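Figure S7 source data.
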Amino acid sequence: MKLDGVSSRTIWLDSDGWSVGIIDQTVLPHTLVRLTLKTVEDAAHAIKSMQVRGAPLIGVTAAYGVALAMRADASDAGLDRAVRFLGEQRPTAVNLRWALEDLRATLAPLAVDARAAAAYDRAGKLAEDDVETCRQIGVNGLRLIADIAGKKGGRPVNVLTHCNAGWLACVDWGTATSPIYQAHDAGINVHVWVDETRPRNQGAALTAFELLQHGVPHSLIADNAGGHFMQRGDVDLVIVGTDRVTANGDVANKIGTYLKALAAKDTGVPFYVALPYSTIDWRTDRGADIPIEERSEDEVLRVQGKLANGDVGSVLIAADGTPARNPAFDMTPARLVTGFITERGICPASREGLKSLYPEKTSAAA
Ligand SMILES: CSC[C@@H](O)[C@@H](O)C(=O)COP(=O)(O)O
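Tokens for the predicted MRU complex:
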């Protein structure tokens, strides 16, 4: 996608052929800072501090993190250490485990001196695969938007989304936003309600920024406003991303997703979850077993933005000493989800639905 008019991806190999470039998402949209990762520690820090975030991008960054680690120590112990260390950085997005297991399986059978080159090659392939997978999710999701557009006679199709499941969360295109970009590019009149997504405001800071850059009509709304717009008939469709879908179709996504799904159910608004195959956790049977990341109280107690002096900083919004809790994700039961939009097509949010698209997979309870 484009950033200030220039085609960009969220992660790339620098011109030296081994260090890894990323966009620092902690200061967007106010400042565009590109960072260079040179060590596995840099990659781990980027994931933990959310310089990179979003399930697919976390996975690809971890893959490059293994490649950086292999430059320093490609022994069996070095590979084990890198996989364990990177895997500890964030618990909920299963793409992290998926990418690390892929790298381990690719590298372990190789001679030690072949591992670094093979790791770069594999990380590059995972990045390219993510681009094509997300593009295909968009092709499949576009049909839903086009169907609604056909019934609305030129009036805008209103899509609500939560958090950032856009191209900044992936390598390109995004998952939830890919159908939106493709609908807009196809000339469909589409408008997006963007949940601000407290506490870190990924909707305000990242999704609204992306849509603005691409010229897609949108309105930023307070998290609490979604149900109101659904009740009034102002939302045709919800599309969100996910960090992990369990074998029975339960969905973990950014905190607040569950409430949107409840409101959508009550108001009869279709609620779709867009995901690549790498987000399905076939080994975990139900959403209650997904580890939910707990983050710092500060993210709730403070709000980050551009200060009057132009710096990016934060302000305290509660009395000093106020205790807070900050679960970063919640679980939406499959029964509240209308369907999954994947690279292989659209299916019901259920064990059977997932199996219909991925017959070669076996789940824990299958
Ligand atoms: C295509 S990204 C899907 C999810 O990763 C996204 O919706 C989300 O919850 C991101 O959370 P974050 O905490 O910003 O990494």
